[in-house]
């Protein structure tokens, strides 16, 4: 399967300058996808997840147009061809 | 932005490392310290609580911890005074072990180790822990003796969170250091971090039923003088203290100050009897008393304090200086510097006798450190 990941501008330097990434392989859930992303781009992991593996509180992850908060969180299923968008919440200064 | 001209440094130059809520500024002058060049913001948009200069082993390296509300904390360094920084994808991870149950919120303090260990660095973080690097900042690990301290479960967060905000390193004995946590108080290790003992005898905890507990004080800042490391000064959440025995005991030295509440504290680079504070009115009104911005200086180790006001606003100055907001340079006639939450940076090039505002309108200043350039 291939999942397209769209990064916010702030995280592009963590992915060797690529704003969009295509991840090939078996990524049944968002967590699997983020784990795979961290293997390819290690410093991205700490920008998205805490040491305990929880999504940072002001980070949003969308599968298509729906936030995983309203799906199954990091256990949200992925299908071949999905686009996952990572975006900062509009909270914060 | 940085220019080639501003990155040239000569012996005796001073660079102020100014951390703000919206990035870091590197503000430079020659040894006269009468004109200043502002360069920044670096780490644009990030909150920079921790900066330090590492001039050991021929380096001229500035470390900065930038915190993003969304993306967390990233530690970065520059070897050319801001012309280039560690690429984000090469930034060293500062992470708690997963089994600790803790997650890094913020780096509050960075400090190079002793001169004989030029690859050792320390980071004080929130939640309260001390991280150590022994490879010049490439990798970091928490100091286990403090991470697993039996008091940890009883440490309470202060207004800024449960942060380890101060590290005082003995200048020649790498095994001995002292840290301060809000709100846990002062702890000292004499065995390289394996064990830590509370060192708060005589320090008041105004907000607790027991005013003198073993630990639990809200210490705001501790500073010492490298030439006399057993001499410490402590600015408390109510209380101003001195220790002459590496923290084994503390004496109240709030003699003649308008308030013993405050955050900022600095010691003169060449005189352990001389220290500087900026008293604030109270914990309920954290501005300078009478809306007059005054630094208080002691030249007799706290027996007396004198107000320093020449060049500082003495009317309608509702200013606040935070715990890392004041620093000195290394010159014989010392430069003293402090920044305010309103974004003003003040400098004195004569031990604090006279002051000048050298930057106005910066983002809120949370950290002021200095680099005094030595021969390469």
Features:
heterodimer; A: 93 residues; alpha+beta; 5-stranded mixed β-sheet; 5 strands; B: 376 residues; mainly beta; 2 helices; globular
Instruction: Specify the biggest β-sheet of chain A.
Output: 5 strands, mixed
Please state the overall shape of chain B, judged from the principal axes of the Cα atoms.
globular
Placed side by side, the strands forming the largest sheet of chain A appear as 2-1-5-3-4
Which percent band covers the strand fraction of chain B? 35-45%
Q: In angstroms, what is the radius of gyration of chain B?
A: 19 Å
Helix % of chain A is 10-25%
State the low-pLDDT regions of chain A, or none. Answer: none
Which helices and strands occur, and which strands form pairs?
The complex is a heterodimer of chains A (93) and B (376).
Chain A: E1 2-6, E2 20-24, H1 30-40, H2 42-48, E3 59-63, E4 66-67, E5 83-88
Parallel strand pairs in A: 1-5
Antiparallel strand pairs in A: 1-2, 3-4, 3-5
Helix pairs in contact in A: 1-2
Chain B: H1 4-7, E1 14-20, E2 23-29, E3 37-42, E4 47-54, E5 61-68, E6 72-78, E7 106-112, E8 121-126, E9 129-133, E10 141-142, H2 144-147, E11 163-169, E12 177-182, E13 185-189, E14 197-198, E15 219-225, E16 228-236, E17 240-243, E18 251-252, E19 261-267, E20 275-280, E21 295-298, E22 306-308, E23 326-328, E24 336-339, E25 345-348, E26 356-359, E27 365-372
Antiparallel strand pairs in B: 1-2, 1-27, 2-3, 4-5, 5-6, 7-8, 8-9, 9-10, 11-12, 12-13, 13-14, 15-16, 16-17, 17-18, 19-20, 20-21, 21-22, 23-24, 24-25, 25-26
């Amino acid at each position: 399967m291939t999942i397209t990941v769209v990064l916010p501008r702030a995280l592009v330097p963590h992915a060797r300058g690529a704003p969009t990434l295509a991840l090939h392989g078996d990524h049944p859930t968002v967590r699997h996808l983020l784990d795979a992303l961290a293997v390819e781009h290690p410093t991205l992991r700490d920008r998205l997840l805490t040491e305990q593996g929880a999504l940072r509180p002001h980070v949003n992850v969308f599968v298509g147009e729906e936030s995983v908060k309203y799906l199954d969180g990091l256990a949200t299923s992925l299908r071949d061809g999905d686009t996952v968008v990572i975006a900062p919440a509009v909270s914060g200064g | 932005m940085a220019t080639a001209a501003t990155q040239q440094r000569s012996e005796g130059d001073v660079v102020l490392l100014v951390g703000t809520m919206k990035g870091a500024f590197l503000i430079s002058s020659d040894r006269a310290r009468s004109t200043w060049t502002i360069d920044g913001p670096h780490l644009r948009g990030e909150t920079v609580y921790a900066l330090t200069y590492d001039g050991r082993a021929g380096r001229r390296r500035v470390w900065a911890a930038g915190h993003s509300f969304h993306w967390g904390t990233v530690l970065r360094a520059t070897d050319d005074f801001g012309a280039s920084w560690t690429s984000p994808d090469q930034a060293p991870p500062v992470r708690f072990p997963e089994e600790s149950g803790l997650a890094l919120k913020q780096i509050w303090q960075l400090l190079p180790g002793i001169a004989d260990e030029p690859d050792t660095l320390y980071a004080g973080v929130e939640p309260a822990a001390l991280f150590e690097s022994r490879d010049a900042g490439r990798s970091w690990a928490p100091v286990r003796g403090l991470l697993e301290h039996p008091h940890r479960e009883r440490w309470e967060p202060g207004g800024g969170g449960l942060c380890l905000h101060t590290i005082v390193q003995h200048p020649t004995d790498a095994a001995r250091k002292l840290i301060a946590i809000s709100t846990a108080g002062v702890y000292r290790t004499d065995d390289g971090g394996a064990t830590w003992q509370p060192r708060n005898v005589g320090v008041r905890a105004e907000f607790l039923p027991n005013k003198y507990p073993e630990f639990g004080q809200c210490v705001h800042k501790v500073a010492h003088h490298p030439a006399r490391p057993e001499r410490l000064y402590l600015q408390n959440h109510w209380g101003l203290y001195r220790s002459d025995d590496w923290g084994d005991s503390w004496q109240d030295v709030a003699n003649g100050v308008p308030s013993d509440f405050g955050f900022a504290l600095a010691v003169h680079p060449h005189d352990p009897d001389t220290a500087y504070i900026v008293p604030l009115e109270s914990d309920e009104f954290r501005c300078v008393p009478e809306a007059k911005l005054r630094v208080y200086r002691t030249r007799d180790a706290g027996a007396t304090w004198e107000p320093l006001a020449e060049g500082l606003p003495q009317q309608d100055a509702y200013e606040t200086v935070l715990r890392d907001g004041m620093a000195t340079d290394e010159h014989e006639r010392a430069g003293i510097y402090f920044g305010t939450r309103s974004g003003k940076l003040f400098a004195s090039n004569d031990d604090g006798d006279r002051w000048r505002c050298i930057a106005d309108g910066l983002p809120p200043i949370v950290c002021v450190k200095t680099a005094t350039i030595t021969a390469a």
